[in-house]
Specification:
2 domains, Aldehyde Ferredoxin Oxidoreductase Protein, subunit A, domain 2, alpha+beta, six-stranded mixed beta sheet, 33% helix, Aldehyde Ferredoxin Oxidoreductase,  A, domain 1
Length: 354
């Protein structure tokens, strides 16, 4: 695999940017993603820096396979010092944002500084622009993405924060295409920088060392992705794991005090799928299609095992309507559903008695 071998550093305080080369030995040892992100974050900041300080970097790092025809390859990591834990943290996700970001010709995009007012950062073939966007402040991430595409063109893909990130909630997400880089509160890091969204539009092509071999592997993986090994995820989504973990006594329940939940059947994929209409979705560059969106009181809820266990058994809740509505609400606000369901991880738990 031949990468671009460089990353883009953007300073929101000045609006300036520069491309920096990444030594080849670093690329070989870190292999993109979270590993490269940790390397760059450590390189750009001292270890004692406050996570919400203007100088604190947040790094969007793309998998070296992004932009290839290999299924499930549109992966990226957001790496920063977590305002929730104070430690370096990676939040992983996948979407068209990863593809558009890698096609800007960079292995990663690192952001430092603080914009003087609520802003968006646009990166395309014309360069980098930091533009004031106070009208987007307060919008859910998905609505902000819609406004950006209408304003600048449908070719842009954005990673945005919701009201929780603006309010510096320490488990706020970075959202994109209805997906979320959720863990660690990187949405709050962007909020502290007055950055509502990073929007990218790329035109570079990702070169590979052996195109014919990559195409052959892609065809083989695509064919196998339609087989029995992924059937339960295609038909039921990752929510299919809930009953299995309950049977194994590994289902987190009532703030981890128990490992089985008597209401698991009510929340199971088998039951909710038989009783409710749903929309099936595919992530970018993925042929499996494990996404399942159910109607909910606060809008459609993309139900995965993680948000179901965290807002259901972990809180002792078996009502699927309540779990779906809570998940949809978290998505609109830009809150990590797993952290939302973990009172022991809340920074207010000591004073609230949670």
């Amino acid at each position: 695999m031949s990468g671009f071998g460089r990353y883009l550093l953007v300073d929101l305080s000045t609006g300036g940017s520069e491309q920096r080369e990444i030594p080849r030995h670093v690329l070989r040892r870190r292999i993109g993603g979270a590993g490269l992100g940790v390397h760059l974050a450590r390189e750009l900041s001292p270890p004692d820096l406050d996570p919400l300080a203007p100088e604190a970097p947040v790094v969007f790092v793309f998998s070296p396979l992004v932009g290839t025809p290999l299924t499930t390859s549109a992966k990226f990591a957001v790496v920063a010092k977590s305002p929730l834990t104070g430690q370096l943290n990676d939040a992983l996700s996948s979407s068209h944002f990863a593809i558009a970001g890698r096609m800007t010709g960079n292995e990663a995009i690192a952001i430092v500084g603080r914009a003087p007012e609520p802003s968006v950062c646009l990166i395309d073939s014309d360069g980098v622009r930091v533009l004031a966007a106070p009208d987007l402040w307060g919008l859910p991430a998905a609505e902000a993405e819609d406004v950006l595409r209408a304003r600048f063109g449908g070719g842009y893909r954005a990673a945005a924060i919701g009201p929780a990130g603006e309010a510096l909630v320490p488990f706020a997400t970075v959202s994109h295409d209805g997906r979320h880089a959720g863990r660690g509160g990187h949405g709050a890091v962007l909020g502290s920088k007055n950055l509502k969204a990073l929007a990218v539009r790329g035109r570079e092509k990702v070169a590979v060392a052996d195109p014919k071999r990559v195409l052959a592997l892609a065809a083989d993986l695509r064919e196998r992705s339609f087989g029995p090994a992924t059937e339960k995820y295609r038909e039921l989504g990752t929510l299919a794991n809930l009953l299995a973990f309950n049977a194994l006594s590994t289902l987190p329940t009532r703030n981890f005090r128990e490992a089985t939940f008597e209401g698991a059947q009510e929340l199971s994929a088998e039951q909710v799928s038989s009783l409710r209409e749903r929309t099936r979705t595919h992530c970018a560059s993925c042929t499996i299609g494990c996404g399942h969106i159910y109607p909910a009181a606060n809008g459609g809820a993309r139900m995965e095992y993680e948000n179901a266990f965290a807002l259901g058994p972990l809180c002792g809740v078996s009502d699927p309507d309540a779990v779906f509505a809570a998940s949809a609400r978290c998505d609109r606000l830009g809150i990590d559903t797993i952290s939302a369901g973990e009172p022991s991880h809340s920074p207010w738990s000591a004073s609230s008695g949670a």
